[in-house]
């Protein structure tokens, strides 16, 4: 069993780094903290909320926009070598990060492997923290990077991987998609069925509902495509807003996500929700996201759901 502590950072390729930097800073409200070669690093954590400030939580690098990596920190840093051996033995070959690769990821140790769907996963040990606080140029009210939607080509198989090889627990299901927690937050990973691997959406938590609505009007004014919300997720109780970023990556702001505290772990029971719009939003907002559209039955719907065709 690999005891993950939390989700740490994402690394995402883009053919147009300058546009991605502008979007991450001026629109999402992240802080650009450094540029190394053809990569840009962004910070997002308020120490009052998380208790610490991760050095960075997102990297955009010049490259293939389908090249996505998700990194996790582990609870006990003494387990690093054992974790590599466990993954290797389980049929997931591990590559240890070189000193240079670790430095680029701002961590003491790193290993990488692919999950059963082919998603690039990195596990870091003793990742760097920042002594300086997060100070964004746009006040979107972000408190921290919180979770991702991760594509899966087989949700049952990948749920078993994350829950048996790792310490993820199912918080709820929506259709076949499991929402998985690794710490107290209702989900750090939501596995959405797709025909190919990759990150499906990136969530940042914001301070309150006013931030959601302020951003809703701000994004509309800036011509950013809103793809879902404002609304409220019945599963996690979070008020949310989804919008489209560079290379059609979907970003989400949310507030009020449910926490399952250690005292409740023994008695918590995951709930099954049907795959329909009301399970994604209890207020009635309809997602313009193929992975969330149960009622998408138009021409090419199956391909859109599988991510093979864009939403028309
Ligand atoms: Fe989300």
Description:
This protein is of the alpha/beta class. The protein has 2 domains: 4-127, 2,3-Dihydroxybiphenyl 1,2-Dioxygenase, domain 1 (Roll), CATH 3.10.180.10; 142-305, Roll (2,3-Dihydroxybiphenyl 1,2-Dioxygenase, domain 1). Helices cover 22% and strands 35% of the residues. It has 9 helices and 17 strands. The protein has helices spanning 17-28, 47-50, 80-89, 99-104, 155-165, 209-221, 262-265, 277-280, 301-305, and strands at 4-14, 31-36, 39-43, 58-62, 68-74, 95-96, 107-114, 120-127, 142-152, 169-174, 177-181, 189-193, 199-206, 226-232, 239-244, 250-255, 271-273. The protein has a 9-stranded mixed β-sheet. Strands 2-3-4-1-5-8-7-6 form an 8-stranded mixed β-sheet. A hairpin with a 5-residue loop joins strand 15 and strand 16. The longest helix is centred in the last third of the chain and has 13 residues, at 209-221. The chain is globular. The termini are far apart. Mean pLDDT is 94; it is low at 303-312. The site of fe (ii) ion (FE2) has 5 residues, from strand 9 and strand 13.
Broad structural category: alpha/beta
Let me know the largest β-sheet: 9 strands, mixed
**Helix percent band:** 10-25%
Whole-number average pLDDT?
Answer: 94
Write the CATH homologous superfamily of the largest domain: 2,3-Dihydroxybiphenyl 1,2-Dioxygenase, domain 1
Number of domains: 2
**What is the number of E strands?**
17
Strand order across the biggest sheet?
A: 14-15-16-13-9-12-11-10-17
Order of helices and strands: EHEEHEEHEHEEEHEEEEHEEEHEHH
Question: Which ions, cofactors or small ligands are bound in this entry?
Answer: fe (ii) ion
The poorly predicted ranges are: 303-312
> Distance N terminus to C terminus?
43 Å
The level 1 CATH classification of the largest domain is Alpha Beta
CATH fold node name of the largest domain: 2,3-Dihydroxybiphenyl 1,2-Dioxygenase, domain 1
